[in-house]
Fold this protein.
Amino acid sequence: MSSDKKVTCLVCPRGCIMTVTSDLKVSGNFCARGIPYALQEVKEPKRNLTYVVKVEGHEVPLPVRTEQMIAKHLIPAVVNELRKIVVKAPIEFNSIIVENILDSGVNIISSAEVK
Ligand code: SF4
């Protein structure tokens, strides 16, 4: 039985379907950018997360996102944390909303401003 893993590259819209062998050889990538992505995906998949948090006294929530990609397995726990958060205006674009969320090394930052 083959232990090769199939990985769809999300670095660009071409979406190459790559194969990573057990000795970490990558094939199926159209360009070199796919290789680190495929190896990361096999080792510890990461994703960007966008979500919203409540703003005290405002009906419209604040859109937030991870500053860098975060380990995929942490995403449900991060969403749980973000659901509990209520921030206070004013908030500037790209301000840190949660520093180092769940000790992941990744900050949650605002994707909009609130006056
Ligand atoms: S391997 Fe290169 S061309 Fe293919 S999806 Fe990834 S970045 Fe795009």
About this structure: Strands lie at 5-8, 17-20, 26-27, 46-47, 50-55, 62-66, 70-71, 86-87, 96-98, 108-110. The chain has a mean pLDDT of 95. Residues 5-43 form one domain. The pocket of iron/sulfur cluster is lined by residues 9, 11-12, 14-16, 29-31, 33-34 (CB under 6 Å).
